[in-house]
Every structure is written in C-alpha cells, then in structure tokens.
Design brief:
heterodimer, A: 358 residues, alpha+beta, Rossmann fold, OB fold (Dihydrolipoamide Acetyltransferase, E2P), six-stranded mixed sheet, five-stranded antiparallel sheet, 21 strands, B: 227 residues, mainly alpha, MetI-like fold, 11 helices
C-alpha cells in the first residue's frame, strides 16, 4: 500500500523543505497546508520540475530519483495539472488533448480519447479551435483530460480548482470524484481548501513550514484534535456510510455506518452505495441525557475520547461513535463545565446538519 | 527594363538579394540559440553577451568594417586561420561580406527573438515536459509556433538591414562587380559618376522595398493577437 517513498531537502533563502514520507500508491492523497507550507514545492519535486539534490523518489519500486540519478520530467510517467489550465494557445482543444497521448508508445495508451471526453464531459468543447474561447472550468477540464491521456501512473494536481470561481468549482468537482472512482490512477492533490480535501481525498498529508506534521487516512487525520485542521472554522469529521433506506414521504435518506445512522435530505443514490458525509464540529452539540422533544433528527450515542481547548471560550471534543468512527464537536467552555464533561463519559451527540460530499 | 536598370544594376540587385538571403538564413540559425540563451539564462554572462550582440546598433559600420578588415587580413587572427585552412583571405570576397553582414545584422535578429522567447511562459515549457515532450520536441512543438511573430520580425529585419548596409560593405567588400558590389554601393557609384537617373531608379527601388517590408511587418505580424 505505501508504495511511493519521497525524501526531499531543499534550502532556499526564504523557504526550506524537509520531507521524508511514504505515501499510498492508490486513491487520492491530499497535500494540505497553508500557503508557504511547501505543498506545491513537494509536488514539483515529485514531478522533477524542481530538483532537490540528494533527494530520493521511488514510485512503485521504480527509482525516479536517487543519488545522482534524476529521471528528467518528460521521462516520468506522470500527469500534472497546474493551477491555471496552461493549455497551449496555438493548438486546438483536440490537439491539446492529444499532445501527451501522441508522445507515448501506442502500447502504453491505456486511456483513450472517447473515454476522457465522456468522463470529463468534453464533447462540446472538442470541436473548438481556440482554447481561449472556453470557460475557465472547461479549460481546466481539458487540462485534466490532457494529463489523463498521457496514461500517467501518478497524477499530480496542484490546486486545480483554486483559480476558478465557485460555480466552475462546483462544475468540476463531480468530474474529479468520478475520476477517483473510475480510473485506477493514484492522485496527489495539493489544496488549501478543507472542503475539497474532505470531498476527494482518501489519505491526508498535512504540511507546515516545509515539514510533514501528519500523514494518515482522511477520517483519522481530520478527527485529530492536535492538528491545525482541528482549529479551522470548518473543522469536522468525515464518515463513510451506506445508503440504506429512502423515505419518500418525508424526502429523506438514511445512511448507516458502524455505530449509528444519519438521516439526510433525500439523495439520488441507490440503496447499498457508499457515500461520504461530512459533519462539522460546530454543528455537533452535546447532551448528557437522551434528548426528548428536540427537532434534531440525528442523535448519536457517543463517548468522549478527547477534550482540547479551542481559544479562550471554546473546546473541541473528539467523540467515538460506535467502534471505528469519530465525530468532532465544538462547544463553549461554559457548557463543558456546566455539563461536567470529561474524557470517557457517555453522551449524546446532536448533529444539526450533515453535508453529503460524495 | 533595360532602359531603367543596366546590366550592372541588375547584377547588383541580384547580389544584394543573394547576400541578404544567405545572411538571413545564417542569422536565424545562430541567432535562435543565442536569443534562447539570453531569454532563459540567469547567468551573470547575460549582460555582457547581450551588450556584445547589441554593439552593431550603436557602432559606426565603418568601425566594425575596419576591425573585421584587420582581423580577416593577412596578419589578423581570422586571416591566418583561413589561410592555414587553405581558404585564402576573406576581405573583398562574397564570403567575407557574408561574415561581416552576419555580425552587423545580428542584433536585429537576436533582439526580436529574445523578446518573443521571453514572452513564452515557463509554465508552457513545464507543461510540455509533463506531457512527455523532450527539450527539442518542446522547442519545435511549443516554442517555435508561439514564437512565429518574432521569427517573422527577425527575418524581415535581418534581411532588410543587410540590404540596406553600406559602410561595412565598402570596408570589407570593396566594389567588385558580381562579388561584392551590392545595390547600395552601386548607387554610390552612380552618384559619383553623375549618373543621377540611374541612381534615382535604384534609390526609388530601395525606398519602395523598405516601405513594403515594413508594411508587411506591421500588417501581417500577429503579435497583438497572442498574449
């Protein structure tokens, strides 16, 4: 599972990168951190766009960099999606898509044009001569398709949505999710937006000042209170659950997971399909007795696993729900004291809202 | 035509075109790597090299011609080299004229190319590399097409500037029919011989040529269309 090993040390006058990590070679790995944390530099080192002397990079047993060996960028079987789409202005949309595809041996072309066109919804863009006539979202989709068509064994994405407006972002996200499901290509995804990460990633690497401060599965890492992610305004846990019941009368859907279930607004997903739900810490309140007469539908039995101060007035709680799942809750310090909350206590978590993110 | 241009005039015009064509081709071949290097390097040498390339813009052509004459002469380093190689001496030959013209027109080719190369974002080159394009592949599939306006400008300026030169030609080439007597020198000859009609025709020809060249440059160069 941990089949990508990267070790890089860079020392610039204003920035240093010092990273030594093992990363899974399947699924989506998010490199998350504030700007200046080194996530883009790390991605560029992996691509070979940045040369960290003495670095090491092994991808599925293949050495891309070690000692004096440095595989040049164009010989690395990777795809790279930059922040801005970077389409070649002198080539038509189709020629842009085919650029990398033409440059790999026919036997290695595992991804085909029509596949990418349908996956990314590109059929109406493909006849366009001038890439500049596309919208921002379309351009980025073409750039993603172009990278995929070079049949990469590793797809690197550097904040591919950050240059887009909210509407274009919403337009692309479903495609990225689909990509995740349909293509067996490991993805490294750089982002500073927690909602994107929660939606797309399986594995999370947190970077700060050029160093890795945490690396683990998404749900595990997001539910840790000792990490900067716990202090964000939109801190919260991610739970993978199964669609179990649709209630047509009230237009609701029940999601089951080991340890409980959550009712959400009805989703058009077949019973049995696995979805991802995100519960923000600020949307979870605590009761020490089973609440009656509450409008809140989702009340889960939980045990307090950890309590951490969050600023002068608030605390973050980590709650174990069932065997393996965690929720975060952010309440006032006063509530904690009034309720006498302590680690190990059995409580009820009242979940005010659940966002279905995938 | 016989009445307007004499055989000698036509020969001078032909020689001018031949010289300008050969010089332009050589300039594109050597100017492209120089311009690329100047556009991309972060070396300390960028300044000095750029200055040397630009010298002919400010230097009187006679000065350049004088130094070249000395260098290519029997006692000059270039002259000694060409003699050892069995080529003989270059001054007052077509080859000598080509070398002098290449040096003289170099900045007019290098500078437009350097400008257009500098305008090509590093990101385009990186993108090509991540799509499996080697450096030469990237040059031909991305840089060259994006730099087309610069190449048009560089070729036209290099050609036109070579056609228009006089001082260097006179110093290095002298005035040998079918060897080094180009149109500008021929005009000078006509004026010296008081053949004003002939001088008028050739001069008008040069004037029209210059105008057409610049018209082509300003009309068809799509610089403004690309970002």
């Amino acid at each position: 599972m941990t089949a990508i090993h990267a070790r890089f040390k860079l020392d610039y006058s204003n920035f240093a990168l010092d990273v030594d990590i093992e990363l899974p070679s399947r699924g989506v790995t998010a490199l998350f951190g504030p700007s200046g944390s080194g996530k883009t530099t790390l991605l560029r080192c992996i691509a070979g766009l940045e040369r960290a002397e003495g670095g090491l990079l092994r991808v599925n047993g293949e050495v891309w960099q070690e000692g004096t060996k440095f595989l040049p960028v164009h010989r690395r079987p990777l795809g790279y999606v930059f922040q801005e789409a970077s389409l070649f202005p002198h080539l038509s949309v189709l020629r842009n898509l085919e650029y990398g595809w033409q440059r790999i041996p026919p036997a290695e072309r595992k991804v085909q044009l029509d596949q990418v066109v349908s996956l990314l919804g590109l059929s109406h863009t493909i006849a366009r001569k001038d890439p500049a006539s596309l919208s921002g979202g379309e351009r980025q989709r073409v750039a993603i398709g172009r990278a995929l068509l070079s049949s990469p064994r590793l797809l690197l994405m550097d904040e591919p949505l950050s240059a887009l407006d909210a509407a274009s972002k919403q337009e692309i996200l479903p495609y990225l999710e689909q990509l995740h499901g349909e293509l067996e290509i490991p993805v490294f995804y750089v982002s500073h937006a927690l909602d994107e990460v929660a939606r797309l990633a399986d594995h999370l690497v947190l970077l700060e000042k050029g160093r890795v401060i945490a690396s683990g599965t998404l749900s595990e890492t997001l539910s840790r209170l000792d990490l900067p992610t716990a202090h964000l305004n939109d801190a919260g846990a991610v739970i993978e659950a199964t669609v179990s019941v649709h209630d047509d009368k009230y237009h609701l859907t029940r999601l089951d997971f080991n340890g409980g279930n959550l009712w959400v607004s009805k989703v058009e997903r077949a019973v049995g399909s696995v979805v991802r739900a995100r519960v923000l810490a600020r949307d979870v309140s605590i009761a020490i007795t089973a609440p009656h007469g509450s409008s809140i539908t989702n009340i889960l039995a939980a045990r307090i696993a950890e309590i951490q101060d969050e600023g002068p007035d608030r605390v973050n709680l980590r709650l174990a729900v069932g065997g393996e799942h965690m929720l975060l809750s952010r309440i006032t310090r006063r509530s904690r004291d009034q309720l006498g909350l302590a680690v190990g206590m059995d409580v009820f978590a009242q979940v005010k809202s659940v966002a279905l993110i995938a | 035509m016989d009445s307007t241009f004499s055989a000698a005039d036509l020969s001078a015009i032909w020689l001018t075109c031949k010289l300008a064509t050969v010089v332009t081709i050589i300039l594109l071949l050597i100017g492209t790597p120089i311009a690329w290097w100047l556009a991309r390097t972060r070396s300390w040498w960028k300044g000095p090299v750029g200055a040397v390339v630009a010298i002919p813009i400010v230097l009187p052509p006679t000065v350049l011609g004088f130094y070249l004459l000395v260098a290519m002469g029997p006692h000059g380093p270039l002259g000694q080299l060409t003699q050892t190689l069995g080529i003989g001496l270059l001054p007052f030959t077509f080859a000598g004229l080509v070398i002098a013209s290449v040096l003289y027109s170099l900045p007019f080719v290098v500078q437009p190319l350097q400008n257009v190369f500098e305008g090509i974002p590093e990101r385009a080159l990186e993108t090509a590399a991540t799509l499996r394009a080697s450096a030469p592949d990237t040059f031909f599939s991305v840089v060259l097409p994006l730099a087309k306006p610069g190449f048009l400008t560089a070729s036209v300026l290099g050609f036109a500037h070579t056609v228009g030169e006089f001082g260097v030609v006179l110093m290095i080439g002298g005035n040998i029919p079918e060897q080094t007597r180009v149109a500008s020198v021929q005009i000078y000859d006509h004026v010296e011989a008081m053949e004003y009609t002939q001088a008028h025709w050739l001069s008008a020809g040069m004037l029209v040529f210059s105008f057409v060249v610049l018209l082509v440059l300003y009309t068809f160069n799509p610089t403004g269309k690309r970002r």
